[in-house]
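Database export, one record per block. Field names are fixed; values are copied verbatim from the stored entry.
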Amino acid sequence: MSLELSPSVKYWLNFFHPTMMWALLLLSLYAGYLGLQVQRTRNAQGEEKKELIKGRYNVKHHQIGSILLAFMVAGAIGGMAVTYINNGKLFVGPHLLGGLGMTSLIAFSASLSPFMQKGANWARITHIVLNFVLVGLFVLQALSGVQIVQKILSQA
């Protein structure tokens, strides 16, 4: 059985991955903000700490991080699937390799959660460093993705 998509469906599928990834980039910046608030809460004293605890930044950070993990993995697989559907092959280059690297980094970062919950400072530092690298790669991916979208638009 062969499932052939119409040309217009194949064309518009090209824009699902970049749209989703830009939204995830913005969401990752928000997750970083929440992470900074968690750190502020951890280091605060007295009344300031009581006020920061009310913000439930740790819960929000964990929830947003979980959403990022799920959708980044799904987005990476989806981006590769659409490329393969439309071209019959993947283009091995900086964008694909960067995306695979980001997928690995977010998985490693999330896997540190149980250690951080037990108070392991090494895990917290590693989590922060991995996420800084991840956001840096994300910005580079966003820029190279815009170039790919421009190429698709110019071929239409």
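Remark 1: The radius of gyration is 19 Å.
Remark 2: The chain has a mean pLDDT of 93.
End of record.
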